[in-house]
Design goal:
This protein is mainly alpha-helical. 63% of the residues lie in helices and 7% in strands. A two-stranded antiparallel sheet has the order 1-2. The longest helix is centred in the last third of the chain and has 21 residues. The radius of gyration is 19 Å and the shape is globular. The protein starts with 5 loop residues before the first helix and ends with a helix.
């Protein structure tokens, strides 16, 4: 298999996100919808660091995401009264209004995506995705010289 495994996954992701955008074009954001769901699911008690950890992304990328959501008036960042070094992420009334619609569209797209796929195959699919993620999570960086030598 010469094609990177990431290619079909990216292709499906693009289709999913494109369909998502078509379903709710009235939103002022076109990405990071799931971040709003996570914040809501955790009762708005998540810090930037905790969100980055849940999403398994670095803190600088998390800041970029939150900057975008803040610019579009979906979140506010406030100092944690318990630890002033930390910022908690809170939803705005605009986000609270749009989250039910976002949840509805996610549910519809998930159902459509998994249509005609048995419960057993769905379970296997999720297990395989988890295994792939685990298999890739402990890859140590290599020094470029040794990597090139191994290719020759």
């Amino acid at each position: 298999m010469d094609e990177p495994l990431a290619f079909p996954l990216l292709f499906v992701t693009k289709k999913y996100l494109n369909a998502f955008s078509k379903r709710i074009p009235e939103l002022s954001i076109d990405r990071y919808h799931y971040v709003l769901i996570l914040i809501d699911n955790h009762g708005e008690n998540l810090s930037q660091k905790a969100l980055a950890s849940i999403l398994k992304i670095d803190k600088s990328y998390m800041v970029t995401i939150l900057d975008y959501l803040e610019q579009h008036e979906y979140i506010l960042r406030i100092k944690n009264p318990v630890d002033r070094r930390e910022q908690l992420v809170k939803l705005t009334p605009k986000a609270a209004k749009d989250i039910p619609l976002i949840r509805k569209v996610i549910s519809e797209l998930n159902n459509r995506s998994l249509k005609n796929i048995s419960e057993d195959k769905r379970k296997i699919f999720n297990e395989v995705l988890s295994l792939i993620e685990r298999n890739l999570s402990d890859i140590a960086p290599v020094k470029s010289c040794s990597f090139i030598k191994n290719l020759n």
